[in-house]
Amino acid sequence: MTGKPSTVAVPTGEGVYGGGITHPTSALDRAVRAVLIVIALPFGAFMLVNGLVDVATGHYLVGGTGSWGPLVSAVSLNPHQVGGVFLMLALIWLGGLIGLVMRQSWGFPLAVAGGVVTLWYLPVGTAISVLYLLILVWRRRALTVDGVDGG
User: What's residue 146's pLDDT?
Assistant: First the structure.
């Protein structure tokens, strides 16, 4: 192995590398994307399923509401009737992940938004979000199209 980055075709739509022009990626960049997928895909999928189950049945897939239930109750909301919030969070997480993987300019800010709005989801969501946000900030230039995250 020569240490040179490999070249892959990157579908970017209207981004800087539009038309599938090749973009160099390093082994570290590929590993970071894999870690982000391992974090975001199951987390977003769980929120999607849990939200859909709550919207359909009024109950969550997993027993209770967790540590956030009392917070929602404190503002006079029924924790078993906020499945739509889980659906929105799921779409933010999964959309951000898709944007990052496809190197779209909107992927990075959407991924950051997912991590930030999930910080309140104590304790597991907070830990996952902190890890996710640290990785996003650490590899920001590699995760955005040519280091440009604005569209």
Answer: 54
